[in-house]
């Protein structure tokens, strides 16, 4: 089963952690100096926040696949949607290594479809080409 993903760029990380922890009724599953992530089951969502982007608000949406096969299925559907996609293998972003596809929807909202392979010790070093609106690991 896939998990919906939302990443929000925030002004004040600690204030936002307090707000979202209260809203979700649980502390973040991952908390770093510049990033926090909740892996919720109800609703089934990967909700992440960071204070790294100069543009605050919605950074991107996405689908987190549980397997590589699920990710490739999403990639195939994106190819049929007649939109440009960027494929990344073993990308390092948001304290994780993942295979992923990036695209922009017709409104210009960045979508990240990904399968997490393992954790990573740093926020991100991935500087490969992504759609302009996808600033997930921009420095």
Helix content class = 10-25%
Main sheet: strands, sense, barrel: 8 strands, mixed
Let me know the number of strands: 8
Could you state the order of secondary-structure elements as H and E?
Answer: EHEEEEHEEE
Helix/strand-derived category reads: alpha+beta
Shape by Cα distribution: globular
- Rg, Cα atoms, Å: 14 Å
Structure, explained:
The protein has 139 residues and is of the alpha+beta class. 18% of the residues lie in helices and 42% in strands. It has an 8-stranded mixed sheet with strand order 2-3-4-1-5-8-7-6, with helices on one face. The longest helix has 13 residues. The chain is globular, with a radius of gyration of 14 Å. The termini are far apart.
Please give a handful of descriptors for the protein shown:
single chain; alpha+beta; eight-stranded mixed beta sheet; 18% helix; globular
In short:
By secondary structure, this protein is α+β, with helices and mostly antiparallel strands. The chain is built from 2 helices and 8 strands; from the N terminus they run βαββββαβββ. Residues 127-135 have low confidence and may be disordered.
Topology, pairings included?
Blueprint: E1 3-9, H1 13-24, E2 30-31, E3 35-41, E4 44-50, E5 57-64, H2 68-80, E6 85-93, E7 96-104, E8 110-119
Parallel strand pairs: 1-4, 5-8
Antiparallel strand pairs: 1-5, 2-3, 3-4, 6-7, 7-8
